[in-house]
Amino acid sequence: MSVVESVRWSKDGSAVDIIDQRLLPGRLERRDLCTVDDVCDAIATLAVRGAPAIGVAGAMGLVVSLAPHVSAPRDELLDTVRMLGDRISRVRPTAVNLAWAVGRVQRTAERATGDGAAILAAMRDEATRILEEDRAMCRRIGEYGATLLAEGSRVLTHCNAGALATAGIGTALAPVYVAAERGQRVAVFADETRPLLQGSRLTAWELAQAGVDVTVLADSMAASLMRERRVDVVFVGADRIAANGDVANKIGTYPLALAARHHGVPFYVAAPWSTVDPDTASGDAIRIEHRATDELARGFVADVVPEHVAVYNPAFDVTPAELVTAFVTDRGIIRPPYHFAHERHAESGQG
Ligand code: MRU
Is the CB of residue 249 less than 8 Å from the CB of residue 165? Predict the structure, then answer.
């Protein structure tokens, strides 16, 4: 099954080559990110988006942004690595993947020996490892998740946690792709996902490209669809999973989980293990990004909110752990009770 490659190195390695997701579904255009400004702007404006994809793009972006400084003395170079990396990490606060991936490349620079060129080469290798690991994690999530799907399963998803949101075949959509590869019939309902329409613009686009049966619905229709018994399973992604299993994901995920619980529909969160943040005890401590008024008020086509009316536009919400049937990770399917702090802390320092 061919899925899109949302983030990769440019041919000569001097840039991060991304699909500009702001233009989809109308135009499929790739864009080279060559400087720290390009990288920060692309992440801030959702040209590249989705927790794993911004992590990968941020890590690779740090490497390309550092290239002009390669002949600086070691101390100066490492100061620049810290400064550029911190700037990239701060662009979006909710997804743990961004600071995690950029932090890995920053630590690699600090450990590297030799001149600037050797430090930069070590950083490039680490960023490439993050990219390749992400691909492999998506595949494993897909294989574990596919065991939860039967012939003819009808899957409801929210936002876009597919190939566009990762370096591989996605997280929430990975089980769908793996099942489809095996010749299984699976149908997807994609929540439109107000206000930026990642579901209708992106999820529907990439599934249609891959030949998967997809139907778009307004977010407000999801509960009725469950009531009509037309949804067998919900799969969503995650931006951060707290130590107790609370999940931050795209705004609108929590009401979906409530509706799923009410209607007895399993609610699965698919995410790589690196999305677990052992330092965040519960969802209450997760910083939720708030985005610009215009994203909600001006919309894509015309103004939809009267001028000067206040707009509340958090980009994510927190779904309490008790509503999650199971986590589908690259390490297997994890069922309650969730105690992530211990496992993740035990391995901190390994990357
Ligand atoms: O604001 P976005 O489009 O970056 O939000 C993306 C999501 O909420 C995804 O569900 C999440 O990042 C997981 S992507 C595999």
Answer: no
